[in-house]
Amino acid sequence: MAEPFHCDCSRHLSMAHLGNCLLNAADFHADSCGFGMRRLNPEGKTWVLSRLAIEVVAMPEEYARFSVETWIESVMKYFTYRNFIVADAEKPSRIYGYARSVWALIDTSTRRPLSIDGVADGGIARSADPSRDCPIARPSRVTPDSEAQTVVSFAPSYGDIDVNGHVNSIKYLEHVLNIFSPDWHVSHPLRRVDIAYGAESHYGDTLSISRHTLPDGSVSVAISKALTGGGAADVCRFLLQFS
Amino acid sequence: MAEPFHCDCSRHLSMAHLGNCLLNAADFHADSCGFGMRRLNPEGKTWVLSRLAIEVVAMPEEYARFSVETWIESVMKYFTYRNFIVADAEKPSRIYGYARSVWALIDTSTRRPLSIDGVADGGIARSADPSRDCPIARPSRVTPDSEAQTVVSFAPSYGDIDVNGHVNSIKYLEHVLNIFSPDWHVSHPLRRVDIAYGAESHYGDTLSISRHTLPDGSVSVAISKALTGGGAADVCRFLLQFS
Question: Do B129 and B143 form a contact (C-beta atoms < 8 A)?
Fold first, then answer.
C-alpha cells in the first residue's frame, strides 16, 4: 500500500520509496531462487546495483495498493539484468510503470567484481527469462555533464548509512529529489529517472550535488565525493525527466 | 516485516520507521472506527500529534515480522490518549515495546483546537478502553533545557514536507537521530524517546537543533525555527534515553 508516510506532498508514492520497493522485490526474488543476500553475504559476496532506470506513466496514489513483479532478463559474466513491472494490485492490467536494473556481484573484502556464472550452481542463468517484454529504454550510462553547477554539499548522516557503512543506493535518490522544491514536484511529476552508480561513499565523506538543465528540459545531476588528496570521485549520476 | 531499507546500520528497525508504523496503525484504527483522517479531513478537521513516547526493550531485527496493536485509552475534551504494543508477529508474547501518544483535533483552516466529544457522534469516547495496561510512563512534556547548544541548522526539504505543507512529525525524529553517528547508534541503542510537539514548521523555514546531555546520560534535544521578526519558536523537544 502507498502509505501516507511513503507519499510526497502530491499525495502520490515518492519515487525514492518506489525505488526501495524495487530493491526489496529483487532481494526477495533472489532469496527465493537461492542467490539472495542472505545466502551470498556469509560467503563474502554481495550484489551491487550498477544502474537503475524507472519510468512511470503515473505513481500510485495515497492508500492505493500496488504490486511489483520482477524477473531476470539475462546473465552475463559480470552483470545481470533484472526488470520490473509496477501495477495496480487490484487491477493488474493498469500499469504504473516499469524499471530496469543492472547488477554486479562483488567480493565483500576486496570490493572486486566476481564472475556470476557459478552463482547458485548456475541456477541464476537458468532462472533468466529473456522472452518477457519490458517496454522502456535500457538504463543510460548518464554521461558526465561538464556544465553542471554545484548546488549543495553535505555530509552523509546516520540515516543514510547501511549495514556495510556505505551510503544506501536509494538515499542518493532522496538527496537528489530534495534539491527540487515541493512546488516543483507537485507541478512537474518525475516520469523517468536513470541512475548510474560509481564509487561508494561512506560516513565522514563530503558529498556535493551538481545539476544542469539540458535543452530538452531533462535535468542532469551528479553526486561526487571530495578525495583526501584533492579532486573528487564520481559517486552517481542521474538523468531526471519531469513531465 | 523489518525490511532492510527500514533498518539502520545495526540491522535493526530504525526508531523513525517504528514511529511511522505507530502513526499508520493509529490512522488505520481511527479509519476503521469512523474517525480517521479520510473522514475528518473533508470536514475541515485533522488530528495533530501532540506528544509521543516510545519505549522498547529491543528493536525488531532485519527481516523480522512484527505487529502493532493500538487502542484509545481515554478521551478528554481537547485531547485523546492512544497507546500501542509492538510485538513479535510470530510469537506475540515477545514484546518489543510500548508507546503512548496524545492527540488534539484541530480546524484545518484556523489551526485552532476543536472539542473531541462530538466526533463520530460520540463514538470515539465509546471506543476507549481504559482497562488495558500500557506499562510505560506517560509522555513527558520535555521541559526546555537552557543549557542546550545548537549543533546544526537546516532548511526542511521536499522529502520532509507532507500534503499540508508542514514538516512531517516523524521527519523531526529522523533529523534528531542524525545528529548522532552510526557508531553511537550501534553501541548505544535508543531505548526510549519522548517527543513534545509545539509550533508547526514549513518549507522555507530555518530549523536549528540543540542538544544537551543530562547528568543521568539521557540527551535533551530541541528543534526551533527562526522567526521572521527575530527570535525563535519551539517546534519540538525530545528526551532520548540510550542504553
Answer: no
